[in-house]
Every structure is written in structure tokens, then in C-alpha cells.
User: Which sequence fits this backbone?
């Protein structure tokens, strides 16, 4: 059942009709709980608020799989402006970028030029740039561009997805680079990725422990308290330098645990997405943890003292529309 629910939300994330409509609808499905607004000024207010609580941040200007050069150039300029503002405001924040937003599906050389300009400016201000890995079809190109950048810069790294069979091999090739370790959020086939949660969790833990014994900085990105507790014990038992890693979670998820880890003295970073292209990101977060939909429905329909809000029918209808449109699209394809 869990896999069916996950596939359902991933299918929604790939639906172009819903993706386009989401820009018009705004945050009507509870996305504001997980996406920090649509503009630079708003997201940086969130960063400052977290910095004041001793939490680092990484910001993601949402958008992916772009096919128009003008859209990629707009995204690049927005990211450059973001870098300037982070430096100007003295924020404890780095950036996470996606290569398909910056032109990877248009032309690899065009994409590289865009990314090089971003990393070069960030390097001037000692700001780290994390290149997010996306679906497996783009992995080879992403790693090729990363290795080219590492010939000139040290302020750039990427993400290792533990559900991929070749995750350890790619991680070992980047032993000296800063990395983020995640489980993986895209739908991949059994020929390239583990399908079973237990196998993914086991590989995540194995890779995390191996990486923590190295010397390069690692972001341990998970909301799983079982994994976090095991790694906390591992760090203690192995006397791992706390300056070599951080825990990382997504904005809006397990906020109490985020604050708790920071208060315990661990380096902690919150991944903060923002922008108009929030829909696909939001659906993948529901795919990873469908229980979040229950939290959203409760937040939208009920007050804090569990009383029904005045206009629940409109909101509930908006949420239900997701399933209705997907069903219609599937019937149309048959």
C-alpha cells in the first residue's frame, strides 16, 4: 500500500497540467507549510529567523526540467541575486541548485556556463553551492559537470542518493568533496535502485557511517529518528569530529526535532525551497511521507483547538481535485 501511495504522488508531481495550474492556484493545498514563499525577500526572512535559532540553511529556487533558454537564464539571474543578498545580509546560508533548471536538457555547454557563473560568484563570498542530483537519467551529466567544476572550485558539491545501487561507487569518487546523503525521492526502476524501504535504510546507514569516517564535510539528510539516533551513537562511539558533519531536514518537517538537534549542539541545516514552481517538489514530499497529507488536511480544515474552520468545503474540494484530475488523466491515456 505504501508503494502505491508513493507512486500516486510521484505521478502527480510529473503531471504538467497540475504543475501549470499550481502556479495560478497558489498555496491552496498546504504547500506554504513546506515552501517558504515565492520571492527572494520572503525566503531570506525565513533564513534569518532560523539563523537566530542557531540553525544553518540551504535555499533552493524551485524549478526543474526546463526546456526554454530564457527560463534558465531567468533562474540563473535569480540565483545570482540570491547570492548577492545572502552576502549583503550576512546570512548563514548556502544554495542548492538543479541543473535541469539551468539548461541541462537544452545544451550541456549552456548549462555549464550558467552553473560556472553561479559557483564563481558564490566562491567570491565563500558561499557553498550544492548541485542536487535529480532523476537517474540526468545523473551522469550532473556528475560530469560537477567534476569539471571541482577542477576550479572547492565551494561545490552534490548529493548521493542511497537508493541507487552505484551510490557507494560515486560517493567514493568524491571522497574529498562536500556531499549531502539522502535516501532518494524520484521513481527509479529495479535495474538501478533498491525498491524496498528496509534495503534503502540499510544502505543509507552504511554509506553514512563510511562517509563519517572520512575527512570531508557531510550533510546527513533524513527525518528518520531511528537512523538519526543510531548515527548519534555511532558518532559518539567512533569519536567523530562534530565539525565534519551536520544533520539536515526539509523546511516544515519535524520542526521540533530540528530545534532539538540544534539545541543538543549538533550542526543543523534546514533545506528551504521557495519559488513559483513549488508543485512538483510538494508532491514528492508527500510521496516520501504520505502521512504529511493528514497534517495538511488537519491544518486546513481545523483550528488548533480542533474546531472546524468556517470555509472547509472549498479547501477540501481543492485537495480532492488532485486525485480527480489524476484519475481523469489516466483514463484519457488508456
Assistant:
Amino acid at each position: 500500500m505504501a508503494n502505491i501511495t508513493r507512486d500516486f504522488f510521484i505521478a502527480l508531481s510529473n503531471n504538467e497540467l497540475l504543475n501549470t495550474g499550481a502556479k495560478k492556484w497558489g498555496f491552496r493545498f498546504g504547500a506554504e507549510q513546506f515552501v517558504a514563499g515565492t520571492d527572494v525577500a520572503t525566503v531570506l526572512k525565513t533564513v534569518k529567523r532560523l539563523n537566530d535559532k542557531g540553525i544553518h540553511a540551504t535555499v533552493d529556487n524551485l524549478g526543474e526540467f526546463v526546456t526554454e533558454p530564457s527560463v534558465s537564464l531567468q533562474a540563473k539571474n535569480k540565483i545570482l541575486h540570491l547570492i548577492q543578498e545572502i552576502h549583503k545580509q550576512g546570512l548563514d546560508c548556502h544554495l542548492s541548485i538543479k541543473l535541469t533548471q539551468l539548461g541541462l536538457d537544452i545544451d550541456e555547454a549552456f548549462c555549464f556556463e550558467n552553473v560556472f557563473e553561479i559557483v564563481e560568484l558564490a566562491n567570491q563570498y565563500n558561499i557553498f553551492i550544492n548541485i542536487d542530483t535529480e532523476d537517474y537519467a540526468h545523473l551522469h551529466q550532473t556528475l560530469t559537470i560537477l567534476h569539471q567544476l571541482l577542477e576550479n572550485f572547492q565551494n561545490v558539491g552534490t548529493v548521493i542518493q542511497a537508493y541507487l545501487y552505484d551510490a557507494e561507487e560515486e560517493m567514493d569518487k568524491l571522497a574529498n568533496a562536500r556531499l549531502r546523503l539522502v535516501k532518494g525521492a524520484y521513481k527509479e526502476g529495479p535495474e538501478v535502485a533498491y525498491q524496498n524501504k528496509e534495503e534503502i535504510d540499510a544502505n543509507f546507514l552504511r554509506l553514512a557511517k563510511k562517509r563519517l569516517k572520512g575527512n570531508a564535510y557531510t550533510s546527513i539528510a533524513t527525518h528518520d529518528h531511528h537512523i538519526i539516533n543510531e548515527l548519534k551513537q555511532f558518532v559518539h562511539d567512533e569519536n567523530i569530529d562534530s565539525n565534519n558533519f551536520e544533520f539536515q531536514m526539509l523546511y516544515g518537517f519535524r520542526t521540533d526535532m530540528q530545534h532539538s538537534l540544534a539545541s543538543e549542539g549538533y550542526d543543523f541545516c534546514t533545506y528551504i525551497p521557495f519559488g513559483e514552481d513549488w508543485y512538483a517538489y510538494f508532491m514528492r514530499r508527500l510521496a516520501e511521507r504520505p502521512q504529511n497529507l493528514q497534517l495538511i488536511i488537519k491544518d486546513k480544515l481545523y483550528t488548533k483547538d480542533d474546531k472546524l474552520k468556517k470555509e472547509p468545503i472549498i479547501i477540501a474540494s481543492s485537495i480532492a481535485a488532485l486525485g480527480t484530475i489524476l484519475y481523469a488523466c489516466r483514463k484519457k491515456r488508456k
Remarks:
- Confidence is low (pLDDT under 50) at residues 295-304, 310-334.
- The chain has one domain: 36-277.
